[in-house]
Amino acid sequence: MAGGRGRGAATLTAVAVVLAWLVVGGIAGPYAGRLSDVATNDNAAFLPADAEATRAQDLAADFVARPTTPALVVYARSTGITGADKERAVADSTRFAQVKGVAGPLPPPIPSQDGQALQVVVPIDDAEGEQIGRVVDELRSIAGGDRDGLTVDVAGPAGLLADLIEVFSAIDGPLLLVTLVVVLIILLVVYRSPVLWVFPLLAAGMSYALASVFVYHLAKHDVIKLNGQAQGILTVLVFGAGTDYALLLIARYREELHRHERPWDAMRTAWRGAAPAIAASGATVIVSLLCLLLSSLNSNRALGPVAAIGIAATLLVMLTFLPALLVLGGRWAFWPRTPRVDLADPQAEHGLWARIARFVARRARVVWLATAVVLALLTLGLTQLGATSLGQSELFTNRTDSVAGQEVIARHYPAGTGSPATIFTLQQTAGEVARVAQGVAGVSTVRPVTQRDQTGPPNPDAPPLVVDGRVQLEATLTDPPDSDAAEQTIRDLREAVHRVPAADAVVGGFTAIDVDTSDASTRDRNVIIPVVLVVIAVILALLLRALVAPVLLIATVVLSFLATLGLCALIFTYLLDFPGVDASFPLFAFVFLVALGIDYNIFLMSRVREESARRGTRAGVLAGLTVTGGVITSAGIVLAATFSALAVLPLVVLVELGVAVAVGVLLDTIVVRSLLVPALSYDIGPAVWWPSRLSRSARDDAEVAHGR
């Protein structure tokens, strides 16, 4: 009777937990499709507050009635612009000025010196925000497509931003759908059950909904900044990490169903065994992500809390909602491979991994030395990673309208036309600053901004516009504004004008934003990476109650990270033919690969420690590898596959990150966690737990077992 009451209470508890979460899901679910409404994708808004380009933006706001972002509509005909082409450009310009959001009236079309192109500069009010995409779409609709040999493209900063917004609009739909399909297929393969896949997928969806409602409200009230990149990473991270945690809990639950008659008892034991490792894993990832708050870039600081919220929501759901679902599902959820009470040794179900464990035991030193050498050789690929950063027009995997237009501008105009560098200086030094700037290699022309520039074409005889004792100069560059050459010109230009005495010169503009963003990314990498390593070391030391094991694990994961970068450099260069990597790539790759790579080692070594307390260290290493090998490898494949889903977005930055995480996770689960770490731990023996009691109590047993 007491047993019946216990089962009834357990069932009621599970039902109450599931119903409570379904209510939460009903409230939070709609927010999963509304994150794009609160996302901001203006790169300039993510600059450090102390960057020179930021100061230039603040000064620029005083020189215009309203801040604008230029769209450049370029008409080109290889045989030369005709009279009809000019009439079409003028007529289009009149219609452009009538579009809501355009700051008219517009200056007349600018002909190229070779007579083969016309360019219309269309300033778009910055107050449009994310609606700049709508404005650019209207400009493209008015300009029409190519016709009778005349090509028409809308480029410039506004055109580029509109194309980026269009890419990120795919996150709420296609990316989420692809991620769901990928996870579903893998779960079907792993479980070979028509039922069991429902539970982790439902829990992962609940995690995403819960994370979305928090991120939405925080972004809406400007507590955090959400951009398309962070939104995309949130999607794949929640489903990937959530499925990982589910696989680990379900695997331990299945083990315990062989030992307990009642599912509630099996889940209680499984939860006690798996929850600490899952919680430690999630905490490691959360703390690592929050280290991004040390970044000087708002975009990086945004990703940290957004992704951390995703992991926190996932932990909460996977440790409450999923166990309740599994208890209600009982044994039938595993059909047709239903676990029975037989008190079997967990290792008996893992024949392949038992053989791998025996191989590691026989050749431990050879295995860890060989795998370490292979990983070290892969790091040589880092020489191919290069220091070249992606230009704005190189961000896409396809050829967008803004990219095509920029190519046309580069062929027929000084490539920096439409996106000049802006120089702000005191009125009394403006002449000297202009002279010095004109002498910088890579600068085509330098002219002051005048009052007449607001309503018509520039007049070289008009006096400069003076605001608070300052003058604004515009320096047109000879190279495309998103090129490495243009960035070097900005650096040279800044160095030159800063030397002018008492000028207080400030250089900003489109290219300057890229320069300052790149410099900030380098600074962030040098500051954040050491902090992440220290934080992870502390967490591992507390979890494993040892010092040697954490150092060993961090060393192996860092080696795996460097090997991944080396391998990815070869993939990017020779397979994908990418022009370079984004400045943020090394830092993002490190945070995700090291945090997630440590995850799998936490799952392994926490089980090894548990087994070592019963069997001795070396036997514990083999037992831990045997029982966790299959599930951790499956979890790695899930995470790699979900991050690979980023490839559906035609954005080089996210494709590179997706490839890096996928390659790194597979390398870590298959090589590092399956071979390197177990072999090294086995070879070191009980000393791996130093200075804990386990390093002393297990030593004698291990030495006796090996005939010492």
TrEMBL record:
The way it spans or sits in the membrane comes to:
Multi-pass membrane protein
Q: Per the database entry, which stretches of residues form a coiled coil? A: none
What's in the keyword line of the UniProt record? Answer: Cell membrane, Membrane, Transmembrane, Transmembrane helix
Highest taxon in the source lineage: Bacteria
- List locations, semicolon-separated: Cell membrane
Gene3D superfamilies, alphabetically?
Answer: Multidrug efflux transporter AcrB transmembrane domain
Q: Which InterPro entries match?
A: MMPL_dom, Mycobact_MmpL, SSD
**Which residue ranges does the record assign to the SSD domain?**
233-328, 554-682
- Record field: transmembrane: 173-191, 198-219, 231-253, 274-295, 307-328, 366-387, 527-544, 551-575, 587-608, 620-641, 647-667
Question: What PANTHER family would the database entry show?
Answer: MEMBRANE PROTEIN MJ1562-RELATED (PTHR33406), MEMBRANE PROTEIN YDGH-RELATED (PTHR33406:SF6)
UniProt family annotation: Belongs to the resistance-nodulation-cell division (RND) (TC 2.A.6) family. MmpL subfamily.
UniProt protein name: MMPL family transporter
**Species in which this protein is naturally found:** Micromonospora humida
